[in-house]
Amino acid sequence: MQEGNPNCYPATFIISLLYIGFVVFFCVEWATKVGCLAGLSGAFMGLTVCAIGTSLPDALVSFHVARNGHGTMALSNALGSNVFDILFGLGFPWMLYYFVTGKSIEVDTKEIGMTAIILFLAIILLIVVLGISYSCNAALGKKSGAVFIGLYALFLIYELLVDRNVINI
To answer: Which of 65, 137, 152, 161 could form a disulfide with 167 if both were Cys (CB 3.0 to 4.6 A apart)?
Structure first.
């Protein structure tokens, strides 16, 4: 396999970031428009379509390394990605917006308050499951995987019911 020119690496990195930014911009725009056409809120589209679209590459990396026997790396990738998204992915644009406009960004916590609580409970559940598997010297397998996938399906149903005003929060 032939190596590329190392002098081109910075340029290709910058071009890749620009490409990702371009694709992300249109994905958000399209998700917003499809949600509008389907009568779904921006919050719901962000919690589902955008979240799945941005998390899918992380999920594939976690799947690949877990399949190769590196469960700790898979878990670290998932946790690290979420910590990065929450702390840097939200913090940097909020800070940048403030420096450019002198204003803060308003966030409607009514729409996402319960979702934040669900995220917190999911982290607690993960810690409990990891603690139990560690204390029992057991590996995580299909049962724990099925539980987490089932809980995600319930989360999607809950969010759809909230979005359709079947459940009022």
So the answer is: 161
Report the pLDDT value the prediction gives residue 112, as an integer from 0 to 100: 80
Task: Tell whether 13 is covered by a domain.
Answer: no
Is 36 domain-assigned?
no
Q: pLDDT-derived band of residue 2, with 50, 70 and 90 as boundaries? A: low
How far is CA 138 from each of CA 99, 129, 149, rounded to the nearest angstrom? 50, 10, 20
What is the greatest pairwise CA distance in the chain?
59
Quote the pLDDT of residue 54: 85
What percent of the chain is predicted at pLDDT more than 70?
98
Residue 46: which of 111, 120, 125 has the closest Cα?
111
Q: How many domains does the chain have?
A: 1
pTM for this predicted structure: 0.79
Separation between Cα atoms, residue 126 and residue 64, nearest integer Å:
20
